[in-house]
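Input (structure):
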C-alpha cells in the first residue's frame, strides 16, 4: 500500500514502491478530508482516456485500488483525485507513482472483473447506508416537529417549551383578566366605603365648609349649628374670629 499524505489542496506528491506485475495494490490518501465516496482518475502511457476508479472513506481513512492493468506496464502512473457533485466536478490533488521494472512471471493474468465486482458491492452498500441516514433524518425531523408543536416522549425538556403549552398559558392568562378586573372593582368599592366611614365619623354626618356674606361680611361655616368663622378687614389685613 502506498500512502499519500497531503497538506493542502492542489498539492502534487510523488511516490515509489510499486513493482511491475503487482496486483491488488491500494493508494491511501490522508489530509484532504475526502467524502465517503470519491473518484480517482488513473492515467499511464498507452491510454487514450483516464481510467475512473471509485475511492472509499471509512473511519476517516480514504483509500482507492490501483488498477491491476496499470501495473502490467512499467511507466509512471498519475492519479488525479476528483470530487464531483450534480452541479460541478473538480480535480483537487495529484499523485505520481513510479513502477519498478521486473521480468514477467510465467502464465501471469490479471482480471479487472474482481475490481468491478468489488466497487459494485461498495457502491450498493454506500447507497443503502445513505438511504438509511436519510430515513433516520426524516424520522428525527418528524419527532422534532411534534416536540415543538405539543411535546414528545423523546424530548422531555420541551414539555413546557412547545406551541401547545404557550397557547394554554395565553388562554389561562386571558381568562384571568376578567377575574382580576372584578377583584379590582371590589377593592375600589371597599376603599370608598372605608373613606366614607372615616369622613362621616361617629355621628354619621359629613360637613363641608361653606361661605356666606352676611351684612357685608364673609362668613365660613363648617357646621352652622356649632361654630362660625367671621372675617373682617382691618387696613390691609384680613382678620377672622371664631364664634361658638
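Output (sequence):
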Amino acid at each position: 500500500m502506498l500512502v499519500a499524505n497531503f497538506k493542502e489542496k492542489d498539492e502534487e506528491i510523488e511516490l515509489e514502491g510499486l513493482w511491475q506485475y503487482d496486483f491488488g495494490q491500494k493508494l491511501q490518501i490522508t489530509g484532504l478530508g475526502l467524502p465517503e465516496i470519491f473518484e480517482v482518475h488513473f492515467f499511464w502511457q498507452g491510454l487514450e482516456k483516464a481510467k475512473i476508479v471509485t475511492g472509499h472513506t471509512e473511519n476517516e481513512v480514504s483509500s482507492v485500488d490501483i488498477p491491476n492493468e496499470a501495473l502490467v506496464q512499467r511507466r509512471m502512473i498519475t492519479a488525479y483525485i476528483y470530487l464531483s457533485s450534480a452541479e460541478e466536478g473538480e480535480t483537487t490533488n495529484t499523485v505520481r507513482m513510479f513502477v519498478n521494472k521486473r521480468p514477467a512471471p510465467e502464465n501471469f493474468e490479471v482480471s479487472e472483473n474482481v475490481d468491478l465486482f468489488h466497487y459494485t458491492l461498495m457502491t450498493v452498500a454506500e447507497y443503502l447506508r445513505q438511504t438509511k441516514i436519510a430515513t433516520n433524518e426524516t424520522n428525527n425531523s418528524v419527532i422534532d416537529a411534534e416536540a415543538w408543536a405539543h411535546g414528545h416522549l423523546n424530548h422531555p425538556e420541551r414539555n413546557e417549551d412547545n406551541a401547545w403549552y404557550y397557547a394554554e398559558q395565553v388562554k389561562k392568562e386571558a381568562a384571568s383578566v376578567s377575574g382580576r378586573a372584578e377583584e379590582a372593582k371590589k377593592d375600589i368599592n371597599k376603599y370608598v366605603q372605608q373613606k366614607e366611614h372615616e369622613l362621616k365619623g361617629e355621628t354619621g354626618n359629613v360637613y363641608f365648609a361653606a361661605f356666606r356674606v352676611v351684612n357685608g361680611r364673609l362668613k365660613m361655616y363648617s357646621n352652622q349649628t356649632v361654630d362660625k368663622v367671621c372675617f373682617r378687614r382691618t387696613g390691609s389685613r384680613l382678620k377672622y374670629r371664631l364664634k361658638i
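Notes: Residues 111-183 form one domain. The radius of gyration is 49 Å.
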